[in-house]
Design brief:
There is one protein chain. The chain is α+β, with helices and mostly antiparallel strands. The protein has four domains: 5-137, Immunoglobulin-like (Sandwich); 152-457, Alpha-Beta Complex (Coagulation Factor XIII, Chain A, domain 2); 471-582, Immunoglobulin-like, CATH 2.60.40.10; 588-683, Sandwich (Immunoglobulin-like), CATH 2.60.40.10. Helix content is 15%, strand content 40%. The protein has 13 helices and 37 strands.
């Protein structure tokens, strides 16, 4: 027999992309999921392949030093009876000189970029030919993959959806901001693979690092460390919380992960300025979805940052309600992290499923700023000794807050305060733009026997001060929403649930605040020395907060913290109440003109009314949406926008992909920043 000569071949990128749900990554490269067969076609010249005469075998290799013992190299022959455990190749069909071969990796294969080589031999003669590269991803559709997720709607949301909502604002006023994860956009996959090859564990021992890339737990831990740059590890984002972002992008201005990842690559893997918790979480989420690990961004309201690990957050106030900074422990208005879905074969049974990963740099874990993966189940059960970092997240959702009022003579009085930490833990619902509350996955109902059991296991002495019904009560209420540019009222509501008259002093103080709990200057104040409360009555005391007072010092988080102190003269007892008021930005209106169809021009009319009493200068609209716009579209307005006037522009765009898409808009100016809006658009497929 003459030698078998390989003339051309086809990696069938388009067909394999469709079958492996990676088509949106484009058909320039082959991207497949592990454990699932993919087809390539070989064309021979001269004569066709003959079974029994010709031997065909493949070599797949990943990483800089592939070896079989590490699982980074595999050699396998084309056979009708492949081994169960390893890579396999089976002839699918033969048509003259062309041969279709189905290749399949084991569901536990290492993910990453592989090179593929074909070896042909007839008799003793053999030749080998490199036929291309492909990228192997995790496979949430394969029952034996450690990231297997049973529900198809969930797989669509947590692996395939390139857009989502992230919850922000305040516990009493939850807002959602649109986010473009964009994990299938051009170049994002190669940037994610580059990130894996920049991580210190890879640089220390390349072979060991590549051999562990079959494990989502390992990948998650690497990602949680690499999204921040606190370890001088060429991480993606630099964090900043001091409201000075002039030498970079304000964390509030980002609208998606794509822009951030592309900047990181473009500037030689230098950290991108700046991120805060939701930005870190959303970049990690895009990364995990890109590699095929189901992931979602979650928000915890009133999130405790317990630096000394005693599960108590001590806050110190002076008699006028100002913070007397003595504690590194903080309560963040909200804090975002990522949950990724995976099995935990490294732990005892029962901890598979959602794992919390927190890429925001807060505390070191094993010497590095990373956190997780921590099984959400272990957080709920108080199993603090399991891997990784469960005590820190347990504290974020369960710590107790104690307010100490420091009196003039320096003595401290402990105030009563009910449970406030770990509220309304939120994530986007599957397939809908609504909020799903997942607090119950992190904790048992407050005051329940199960909660007491868990706290005992975690050695957490919970304060017995759940809200008492007797005595005096203090709450802060808001009459209606507070709009940027407007004055608004807050009320201290005091209840005397006793049979005797009480005489008190009431201090009410409002200050602008950042979402991580730090406060700015005072913007409203009332001190009533003589509040008399008749038995079994309620009293409402208003405090008017003026725009002219808060406007200048309002941070981009749009928060005002109102603190009330009620001191009872007879007993000297002090009650503290705190409320975060979210100042609403104006709405961005988006109209879509034309018939939404793939590859056909559409027009978006985008507008916003200036609600302030001053003109807006340097106005910029930024628009993006995976599958809709070609990257980011930026429109700078030439003229200032006068008070109550409309800032608007028209954007032409040609959708590249069909299906449900989000067009997302961010508006920036000198006085009004980080205003977000989005519009869902259903794009019809191009007629065949």
């Amino acid at each position: 027999f003459a030698d078998l000569v390989l003339e051309t071949w086809d990696l069938e990128c388009e067909r394999n992309g469709r079958e492996h749900r990676t088509a949106e990554m484009g058909c320039q490269q082959l991207v497949v999921r592990r454990g699932q067969p993919f087809t390539i076609t070989l064309h021979f010249s001269g004569r066709s392949y003959e079974e029994g005469v010709d031997k065909l075998a493949f070599n797949v290799e990943t990483g800089p030093c592939p070896i079989e013992t590490s699982g980074t190299r595999s050699h396998f022959a084309v056979t009708d009876f492949p081994e169960e455990s390893g890579w396999s190749a089976v002839v699918q069909q033969q048509d003259g000189g062309s041969l279709s071969v189905s290749l399949c990796s084991p569901p536990s294969a290492r993910v990453g970029r592989y090179s593929l080589t074909l070896e042909t031999s007839t008799g003793y003669q053999g030749t080998s030919c490199h036929i291309g590269d492909f990228v192997l991803l995790f496979n949430a559709w394969h029952p034996e993959d450690t990231v297997f997720l049973r529900d198809e709607d969930e797989r669509c949301e947590y692996v395939l959806s390139q857009q989502g909502l992230i919850y922000q604002g305040a516990r009493d006023y939850i807002t959602s901001t649109p986010w473009n994860f964009g994990q299938f956009e051009d170049d994002i996959l190669s940037i994610c693979l580059k990130l894996l090859d920049t991580n210190p564990k890879f640089l220390r021992d390349q072979n060991r690092d590549c051999s562990r890339r079959n494990d989502p737990v390992y990948i998650g831990r690497v990602v949680s460390a690499m999204v921040n740059c606190n370890d001088e590890d060429r991480g993606v984002l630099a964090g900043r919380w001091d409201n000075h972002y002039e030498d970079g992008m304000s964390p509030m201005a980002w609208i998606g992960s794509v822009d951030i990842l592309k900047r990181w690559k473009k500037f030689g893997c230098q950290p991108v300025k700046y991120g805060q918790c939701w930005v870190f979480a959303a970049v990690a989420g895009a990364f995990m979805r890109c590699l095929g690990i189901p992931s979602r961004v979650v928000t915890n309201y009133n999130s405790a940052h317990d630096t000394n690990g005693n599960l108590v957050i001590d806050r110190y106030l002076n008699e006028t309600g100002e913070e007397d900074r003595r504690s590194r422990d903080m309560i963040w208005n909200f804090h975002c992290w990522v949950e990724s879905w995976m099995a935990r074969p490294d732990l005892a049974p029962g901890y598979d499923g959602w794992q919390a990963l927190d890429p925001t740099p807060q505390e070191k874990s094993e010497g590095v700023f990373c956190c997780g993966p921590a099984p959400v189940r272990a957080i709920k059960e108080g199993d603090l000794q399991l891997k990784y970092d469960i005590p820190f997240i347990f504290a974020e959702v369960n710590a107790d807050v104690v307010y100490w009022v420091v009196q003039r003579d320096g003595t401290q009085k402990k105030s009563t305060h009910s449970s406030v930490v770990g509220k309304n833990i939120s994530t986007k619902s599957v397939g809908r733009d609504s909020r799903e509350d997942i607090t119950h996955t992190y904790k048992y109902p407050e005051g329940s026997d199960k909660e007491r059991e868990v706290f005992a296991k975690a050695e957490h002495e919970t304060s017995s001060l759940r809200e008492e019904d007797e005595g005096l009560h203090l709450k802060i209420k808001l009459s209606e929403g507070a709009n940027n540019g407007c004055d608004f009222d807050v009320f201290a509501v005091i209840n005397n649930n006793t049979d005797t008259e009480r005489v008190c002093r009431l201090m009410l103080c409002a200050r602008t605040a950042s979402y991580n709990g730090t406060v700015g200057p005072q913007c409203g104040m009332k001190d009533l020395l003589n509040v008399t409360l008749a038995p079994w009555t309620e009293q409402r005391v208003p405090l008017r907060v003026l725009y002219e007072k808060y406007g200048e010092s309002l941070t981009q988080d749009n928060l005002i913290k109102v603190v009330a102190l009620l001191t009872e003269y007879q007993t000297g007892d002090i009650i503290v109440a705190v409320r975060d008021v979210y100042i609403q930005n104006p709405e961005i209106k988006i109209r879509i003109l034309g018939e939404p169809m793939q590859k056909r021009k559409l027009v978006a009319e985008i507008s916003l009314v200036n609600p302030l009493a001053v003109p807006l200068n340097n106005c910029v609209f930024v628009v993006e949406g995976s599958g809709l716009t070609d990257g980011q579209q930026i429109k700078e307005l030439e003229e200032p926008v006068e008070p109550q006037a409309v800032a608007k522009f028209r954007l032409d765009f040609v959708p590249s992909q069909a299906g449900l898409r989000k067009l997302m808009v961010d508006f920036e100016s000198d006085k009004l920043t980080g205003v977000k809006g989005y519009r869902n658009v259903i794009i019809a497929p191009q007629p065949k």
